[in-house]
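Researcher: Let's try something more involved. This one mixes different molecule types, so please make sure each is placed in the same coordinate frame as the others.
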Amino acid sequence: MYVAVKGGERAIEASWRLLEAARRGDRAEPELTIAQIRQQMRLAVARVMTEGSVYDEELAALALKQAAGDVVEAIFLLRAYRTTLPRFGYTCPIDTERMDVQRRISATFKDVPGGQLLGPTYDYTQRLLDFSLLADEAAAASADGVSSATQSDAPCAAAAAESAPMPRVVALLNAEGLIEQEQPTPDAVEPRDLALEPLLMPADRAVRLQNLARADEGFLLSIGYSTQRGYGRNHPFAGEIRFGTVAVEMEIPELGFAVELGEIDVTECQMINQFAGSQKAPPSFTQGYGLAFGHSERKAMAMSLVDRALRAHELGEPVEAPAQDAEFVLYHSDNVEASGFVQHLKLPHYVDFQSELELVRRLRANHPATRSDGQEEDAA
Amino acid sequence: MMTDKFSSLDSLVRGFADPVHDAQSTFRVMLNALARPGTVCSIEAVLDEDVERQWPAAAFAAMLSIADFSTPVWLQHNDEALAQAIRFHTGAPLASAADAAAFAYIADAAAMPAPDAFAQGTPEEPQNSATVFIRVEAFEGGKPLTLSGPGIRTSVNIAPVGIADAFWHERASLAAQAPCGIDCYLVCGRSVMGIPRTTRVEHN
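Model: All components are placed in one shared frame. Result:
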């Protein structure tokens, strides 16, 4: 017999206390500070900001601390907080061409104007665990002088970045008309705001990109990967990836001009994909686009792969693979929704289950196999 | 030109003293008012005397609580001080036409536009309709009306002063377009009465 549990209030309060103790760990160890998380877990902070849809490093670090490093839980915390914020309006579109670039690479042209700027990247590390990090930083630094080297490198990178605005790599292909260029649609209606309005199908590209921007990185990575393995193949090249700082501006109606509110770090990816052509258009290259807060290259790249895959319909390509199915991708991309629905299974379903039990018992009673079993038992 | 716009800041009325809690308590009152149509509710937030002298405090507090940059506000009469207060405290744009407004303020109920002059929403998005704040002289002493519908056990009798009969007739004729329609708040001083689109209003 299944009995509905009543109360539980004290058990829940005790669980909160245990959670807090588990989060803090051994109190003999110094507590993590928010500044430490911001500085030394910057990529986790970037992911929480991106998928939490709030650009605030301090709050993202706080969420990570509170969630004991559970990134999806931290994203949930930030999303929940986000709903309490007053909205002042929409800023102007950021201009990533005027980005103060810390890293900028192209996999399509070696000698791009502005140059290849590696910046901080794990790409050329050998993925060997660095056991020197086990030791205290002070001891490690005196041993090999690593920290002094990075300090002297930093100003050079900054100076290089300040030089000139960097033209987009995809613009280089423009001269021959080989690649479609992203152009603002004249007199287009304002895009729907997914933060305020529900996702409805068919979703135009502006809506899809909003969804993908806050989509779970792991989900996008897998779906993007599936296109590379052949499920909706579209031959991607990393046309350009750039990471750096852009200004955020807002039009103030009373002033009549845009005012800079601050700066944010973003990672942008323009993927260049082959397009076989259709009856209306000759073969050419097309684009997939990805943008994420902070330094989030994997996210931006995966997003651009999925964005391109979801353009199959508008480009007249057959829609056959999961990555090309907007309804499948967009309705399953949000990790706050997904985590909530999966994890709600932990909550009491006593009554649901009771009714299912009754149903199965009745069905079994009427099932020929059950009846014949019973007869055999009787016979035995 | 810029100085023109800012020179009148001296005349700007103050908003909520405690924006978060005042907005919360006002919102709760407005929610209750719509849930119990025909019931006179009263806002708790304290507003400046300047405000109370010029406009029904209930309407002003409601605007501060629910208007923002995404909800255009339409004022029946050109009212520079009110427009400035709404712009400054909420960031809401001012709508030039009634049908572009999410919220409307009617200072003169007798001369208000027909209900179909406001946004009614669509069957897919009935929430994209207007909420209209109508200033009345009093909740008692006007023509008796009987309200019925969701949130009302049997019926409620009200007699607000100053709303033309034609408004109620025209409103009734729009009932068939449910779930579309407009929600109304009658406001008088600090008091507010909700008349949502689902409420049937009949002359006695």
